[in-house]
Write a structure and sequence with these properties.
Layout lengths: L1 E5 L6 H9 L14 E6 L3 H9 L4 E3 L2 E6 L18 H4 L4 E7 L15 H32 L7 H15 L11 H8 L9 E6 L8 H6 L9 E6 L1 H8 L3 H11 L5 H13 L1 E7 L3 E8 L4 H8 L1 H5 L1 E8 H7 L2 H7 L3 E3 L9 E7 L2
Parallel strand pairs: 1-4, 1-5, 3-9, 5-6, 6-7
Antiparallel strand pairs: 2-4, 8-9, 10-11, 10-12
Helix pairs in contact: 1-8, 1-10, 4-5, 13-14
This protein binds guanosine-5'-triphosphate and magnesium ion.
Length: 360
């Protein structure tokens, strides 16, 4: 899973990136202008428990990759701003995290001269709409030209879908709001449209506003939807706390009323937004957490683990995490008979512990 962090200049993108990935702050003035990416391990108490239940096996968490990007300047969508080039790597992201500034700091001027989260969200949305519109229109023109020249192999369905997309974009509707059929979805996938990606609006608040998240987010609530999530986070404070040792960090969080560490809230929301679930395996040397799309089958789970597992798939042995924890170990669960045998179409459930039976 690849999450792209975007936003206007100096809103706290790199701060969020460091919070999410646990990276240390770089020495002053060395911040690289190019994209930076880092892998974050997804903390999961269930995995820790599995490791304790199976001594000698290494715990391997699921991971996500975060990409930090240079600031997007208004105008970037038309290829005018310095951010124009940075759209390319962002197109590969599974979801975008738009960092929106809400913290007050007179030493850090806002690029638009004032604090206004709604305006900033609108500015970036416009950039993405324009960037997508350009891609869609270019392709429409190409196909139309080819059709005029009498080429019959052109995809008319693709043309229709792109025209629908371009119309929506012109009307300032992001593509994530459109109800495309699975076939249309497939046709559009290759274009990696930015406005089709799930979006997490991360409002970066100051430490003094902790506890006032509800009122700060109030005006932005209507923007949230099935594919747009909203989160207020004091990124700088949380990043500082995250560097303390866990005991001290817990004390600080309690005092400040932070119920869940920011990096974990970010992951949980991203998971939900992307419609992902976690399943586990207990292997010979390791216990491991994996990511799968919700509704994914046992066969898809097998191919996530290893292509050979999918090719030679016979059955999946499945036990919910809770039942396994009660039994005490996978061996004990097997003895107790709480493992179910499932076929390749079985829809994997959140927290399933899965052993694939396969032939080579
Ligand atoms: N006071 C205050 N400062 C913050 C907060 N979040 C970030 N900053 C500061 O704002 C400045 C910019 O933060 P960055 O994380 O570098 O922002 P950025 O969006 O990556 O900036 P560019 O990459 O230059 O566009 C830094 O000096 C941060 O320490 C906050 O919540 N409160
Ligand atoms: Mg930065």
């Amino acid at each position: 899973m690849l999450l792209g962090i975007v936003g206007l200049p100096r809103v706290g993108k790199s701060t969020v990136f460091r919070l999410a990935t646990g990276q240390a702050e770089p020495a002053a003035a060395t911040a690289p202008p190019e994209l930076t990416q880092a892998v974050a391990r997804i903390p999961d108490p269930r995995l820790d428990r599995l490791a304790r239940m199976h001594p000698g096996k290494k715990a391997v968490p699921a991971t996500v990759t975060y990409v930090d990007s240079p600031a997007l300047q208004p105008g970037a969508g038309k290829g005018e701003g310095v951010g124009g080039a940075s759209f390319t790597p962002l197109r590969q992201a599974d979801a975008l995290i738009h960092v929106v500034r809400a913290f007050v700091d007179p030493r850090i001027p806002h690029v638009e001269g004032s604090l206004d989260p709604s305006r900033d969200i609108g500015l970036l949305n416009t950039e993405f709409l324009l960037a997508d519109l350009e891609v869609a229109e270019k392709r429409v023109v190409r196909i139309e030209e080819a059709l005029r020249k009498g080429r019959k192999d052109q995809n008319v369905r693709e043309l229709e879908t792109l025209r629908t997309s371009a119309e929506a974009l012109q009307a300032a509707r992001p593509l994530r709001d459109l109800d495309f059929s699975p076939e249309q979805g497939r046709l559009l996938r290759g274009f990696q449209f930015l406005t089709a990606k799930p979006l997490l609006l991360l409002v970066n608040i100051g430490e003094e506003d902790l506890g006032k998240e509800d009122s700060i987010l109030g005006a932005l609530r209507p923007l949230a939807g099935p594919r747009v999530a909203l989160l207020a986070l004091a990124a700088k404070t949380e990043a500082e706390i995250a560097r303390l040792d866990p005991k001290d960090a817990a004390i600080f969080r309690r005092e400040m009323g932070i119920a869940e560490p920011g990096a974990e809230r970010l992951l949980r929301l991203s998971y939900g937004l992307l419609g992902l679930l976690t399943f586990f395996t207990v292997g010979e040397d390791e216990v491991r957490a994996w990511t799968l799309r919700r509704g994914g089958s046992a066969l898809e789970a097998a191919s996530t683990i290893h292509t050979d597992f999918a090719r030679g798939f016979i059955k999946a042995e499945v036990v919910p995490f809770a039942a396994l924890a009660e039994a005490g170990s996978l061996a004990a669960a097997r003895k107790k008979g709480v493992l179910r045998l499932e076929g390749k179409d079985y829809p994997v459930a959140e927290g399933d512990v899965i052993t694939i039976r396969f032939s080579v």
